[in-house]
């Protein structure tokens, strides 16, 4: 077998593979640790307990680090937020709830991009996180499909310093506006999560007020306050992530109706 023939075979094979695994509805997941998922993580160890709402399904794919689609399984961000111990996050329960409410929704593609411990400045246009988000979003479209929304859960790291909290709205809205523009999707639906936790209660309220104020078009907020936390008092527990995933799904289905066919 000649080398060229072999390469052609490889190409054809990967083409067939990518044809098999390609989503029709794509969601970007970004932010910090609670989007990446720390459910079931204590003392830097994940308990490996996967709730029914987070089990793999042939209708739920994830864009892996190497930008190929694979059947999604927890921890969804394992190869993305790779310097931390990842656990259960909101992505899988979100996708399961969408499919439960709308069985004809289509194959869902999740694009994990969240990085633990990042402040909003580290997501500004020009940053590595921003560039990776745009690159992964672009890659997610190569096999077809459409980006339906950005799910965003971030801000805990901006509750440590008064100036960061005061600047949160300007920095957040710049990020949202820039990412919509760079994805060529000026009306991209965004669903953000209002913080359940933070480092300083006063500054957490400043950030939460920005998140709950919610005054950009096509921006929705779900409030994670009150959901159960892990022992670190910072990270949502596995049951909390399941509930959050359902809240995100409801916010999407209730606020961003299907285009008229
Ligand atoms: C984590 O470690 C602390 C201190 O060693 C211990 O008290 C706690 O029980 C541990 N938590 C879990 C969930 O293992
Ligand atoms: C890409 O990553 C996925 C998941 O980690 C793996 O299964 C697959 O073999 C990788 N593909 C390539 C071409 O490296
Ligand atoms: C954001 O995080 C980076 C990295 O930890 C840090 O250098 C920076 O001071 C933080 N705050 C701002 C406003 O950039």
UniProtKB/TrEMBL annotation:
One Pfam family hit: SASA
Name of the protein this chain belongs to: Sialate O-acetylesterase domain-containing protein
Span of domain Sialate O-acetylesterase: 24-253
GO MF terms, alphabetically ordered: hydrolase activity
Keywords in alphabetical order: Hydrolase, Signal
Keyword Transmembrane: no
InterPro entries in the cross-refs: Carb_Esterase_6, SASA, SGNH_hydro_sf
First and last residue of the signal peptide: 1-18
